[in-house]
Amino acid sequence: MKTNIKIIVLFIFCGSSIQFASAQSLKLLAENKNTSLRGLSAVNTRVIWVSGSNGTVGNSVDSGNTWNWMTVKGFEKTDFRDIEAFDETSAVIMGIGEPAYILRTADAGKTWKIVFEDKTKGMFLDAMEFWNLMSGIVIGDPVDGKIFIARTFDGGMHWRALPADNYPRADSGEAMFASSGTNIRKLTKEEAVFVTGGTRSRLFIRDKKIDLPIVQGRESTGANSIAVKDKNKMIIVGGDFNNKDSIGKNCVITANGGKSFNFPAVAPHGYRSCVEYIEKNKWICCGLNGVDISNDDGNNWQLISSEGFHVCRKAKEDKAVFLAGSGGRIARLITD
User: Which residue(s) pair with 56 in the sheet?
Assistant: First the structure.
């Protein structure tokens, strides 16, 4: 399909408030013990969608005060690890594999239509990203040494894989983590970025392949998530999910588009599966053992909660920040 979109590869408790330091708090909005949530997409403060294991999808149209939980018929055992919400009624969800599926709803989840299916042995989707209401991308683990990529240009109604010759090549043991739907991000209006992990963790920018200084070398290590402030400033987090408290080389920062990297003076307090840029110099990241905030562009991170979450996302249309994780827990970041 003809397009001017360039792909840049960067291998790169309900109703109560729990208070933490630095005038920050997490307000727990919901629990659903039948699922673990890794997909999260907020349109604005009101409209929030989540997805997870056991075919579960949830949505709220009142800022998380009430939730509509559903199990997608025919997909009761599917792990929907990413979701992209467009409004109160429309969203797409990503089932990892095998086989791999993407489904779309236009009636707030009453019905779902299969818009992508791939039964290829080894197919495993990791994350989706949308530039706008129409243009999106999905990325998957390497098959035969090549990283899978497909595109949509009609809001996720149809998807087309790139020509196989255009797939990025991965090293042996190099893949992506479907931990939060955030290892691929838009960089500019025409470009996307993503990170890899495993035995090798890399940043690919156009034809440049750059090793990340993040911990790597085992299947459980490497980059899990990337967040973008602008085309130069990016923060990448990860670590070792088998060693959730380790802070060694779990976060790297670039201020020049990947030409060089720095470690924080005070790192996030453990393995982190997701990082998100909020505003100005403020960022948030989360993982199995807690949530950290940085107010100085990632140089110093402060633990604000020891409650684990898989994913944290800022709303598309405003500054609201939500989190989701195991036990179907959903929370909102409150800044006093």
Answer: 71
